[in-house]
Each structure stands twice: as C-alpha cells, then as structure tokens.
Recover the amino acids of this structure.
C-alpha cells in the first residue's frame, strides 16, 4: 500500500514558501513550473495508487474511507489564500497597478488555488476508485480537472481544463451553460478542439468573459 500512502500524503500536504524575493513554491513546486507540474506529479501518484486498489481487502478499503474523510477536512482547513484574495489582486492590476511584486504575488496565489483544487479533485477521484461516495459537502469542493497531458504543450504555463466535467467544475457551471459557452464564437480563442477532445484555457476564458461584460456595460464604446 506504499503507493496509496504516497498519494494520500501528497494530498494532505500544504507547504508554502514565500520569501517575497526569489523563492515562491507550493509543495516544492516553484512558481516558474506552474501548477501543471503539480498536476503531473499528482497524476503519476494517482496512477500508481490505482494499481494497488485491486489488492485491497474490503476492510482496508473501509479504513481508507475513514482516512478520506479526515483528509478532506484537512484540505478544507488549509491555510492558503482564497479566491477572493485572487480576485482582489486581479482588480487592482486591472485598475492600472503595474507593480511587478504584486503581479508575482498574484501569479503565486493563483498557482496555490489551482494546486489545492487539484488536491481536492484527486482525493475525490481516489474515493471513487475504492467505491467510497464522499459526503455532499466534500463533493461540492471546487476542482480543476485536467488530463494526464494537455492537448497542446505550446505553453506549459497555461492552465487547461478538459471536457464538460472539467469546464463545469472550473467555472461552477451547469451542463447547459457549458454548452452555450462552447457554441459562443466570442470565446473561440480560449477553446481548443482536437477530434472528440475539448480543452479550455481558463485564464484566457476569464479574460474574455471580463471583456464581454465590459462591452455589455459600454455598448457605445464597443461600436466605435
């Protein structure tokens, strides 16, 4: 059960290093690596853990169900910046603040939020894999769902979500709203289609949403 333990230990780990000068990292993932590196680490641990599940007795699975409850609670209590802080930083930057330190802090907060979301996602995935259904509170945890590899790796620092489930989770939307979003040509710049696969660049999509909202509020400016 070493692979399962390795995965669960990483899912409950929350180590932030921020010296405000050079070293910004979350669970040993540096800011320059971005959350995509953390996702690849978690996915590798998750795949290794899956290989051990068929070897577990039902009693062992029941024991891990109790651990999942505890780890889900630990994740909810992570001492990390929340989305409101990120939104506040974004508003300040959009208002014209060009401070380099602020932008770096914003990028770091964004990375932390994404990494924590990934931890919650993989904990729920592991719970599903052993046949445990999380409580309603746990299942409502936000998540950014990604595949093992992005459709394109032209820019590894970009954050992507995949398919309806990933888009619904990232933006807290229902299926109908996702369908409407994917049909709207305004957002094509944020959407990549490759065969049956659909990927959405989350930062670009949010940028376009803000732009569309500004145009809605200022129709005269849009026509000029």
């Amino acid at each position: 059960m070493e692979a399962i333990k390795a995965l669960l230990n990483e899912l409950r780990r929350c180590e932030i290093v921020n010296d405000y000068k050079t070293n910004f990292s979350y669970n040993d993932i540096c800011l320059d690596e971005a959350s995509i590196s953390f996702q690849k680490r978690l996915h590798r641990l998750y795949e290794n853990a899956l290989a051990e599940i068929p070897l577990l007795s039902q009693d062992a699975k029941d024991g891990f169900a109790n651990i999942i409850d505890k780890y889900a609670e630990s994740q909810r209590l992570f001492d990390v910046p929340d989305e409101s802080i990120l939104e506040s930083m974004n508003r300040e930057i959009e208002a014209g603040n060009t401070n380099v330190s602020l932008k770096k802090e914003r990028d770091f907060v964004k990375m932390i939020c994404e990494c924590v979301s990934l931890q919650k996602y993989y904990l729920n995935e592991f719970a599903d894999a052993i046949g445990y259904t999380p409580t309603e509170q746990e299942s409502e945890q936000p998540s950014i769902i990604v595949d093992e590899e992005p459709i394109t790796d032209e820019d590894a620092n970009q954050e992507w979500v995949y398919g309806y489930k990933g888009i619904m989770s990232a933006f807290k939307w229902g299926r109908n709203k996702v369908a409407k979003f994917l049909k709207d040509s305004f957002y094509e710049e944020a959407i990549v289609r490759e065969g049956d696969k659909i990927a959405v660049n989350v930062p670009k999509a949010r940028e376009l949403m803000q732009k569309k909202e500004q145009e809605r509020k200022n129709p005269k400016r849009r026509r000029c």
